[in-house]
Write a structure and sequence with these properties.
By secondary structure, the chain is an alpha/beta fold. It contains nine helices and twelve strands. The longest helix has 24 residues. It is globular. The protein starts with 9 loop residues before the first strand and ends with a helix.
Length: 285
Amino acid sequence: MNIAALPARAGVSFKPEHFEAIAAAPQPVGFFEVHAENYMGAGGVPHAQLARLRADYALSIHGVGLSIGGRQPLDRDHLERVRVVCARYEPESFSEHLAWSSHETTFYNDLLPLPYTDETLTRVVEHIDLVQSVLKRRMLLENPATYLDFAESTHAETDFLSEIVARTGCGLLLDVNNVHVACTNRNADPAAYLAAFPLAHVGEIHLGGHAVDVDEAGAPLLIDAHDRAVADPVWALYAAVIERAGAVPTLIEWDNDVPSWPVLAAEAEAAEAVLAAARRGRQAA
């Protein structure tokens, strides 16, 4: 099984509007990440651009449509399309979400939460086993941004993720912004969540921006919007994670209201500074 790893650098989500700026000169990023579903066509400009980037940078492919947590069997046609994309570009990493996004023939434009029960655990494990078997590579599973708790859940999310890793051998993608969003929305402690998170199995970290709102009771409600810079509380959580785990490949996600390339590159440079400090600290120790 392919378990190649991304470089322990900062990376960014690739956006076509940045291609000319990126291609003009070497960039201070370690890798780029793209959504698999954007590259399922046979050719054209998207593939020409990605092939050019792939020649010079490490690549992470991030799936958003497999519906790993769905009740029905995985869509084998969609999984085959993912396999073709991965075979074409041989990315250092492939990841998906602990979420569901389809039911029968209906597809939702959201990554929806699921209850953490034994039944759900069995189903998610079966789906991950199938994905890894078809792709012939280890996948990373991302923790979700959630807005509520299910009354029927019998496992804490961190325990649920740990058990998935133990049963499948997959790795984890730790989205630190999702931790901040979910814990704020559910009135939980993000530091306690991260203390229980199985960091030894994390192959990539995501950082992104979130929108701030309030619910009907006037309590804080955070939305995982990916439409702005990383917030200070998320940077603080990230620094604490890196202090414990050491340098881990870190992606800046900015998918909506995409800024100019220099703005996005500056966010990656901020993450790179945290990673560099961790490396210096470990060398000094």
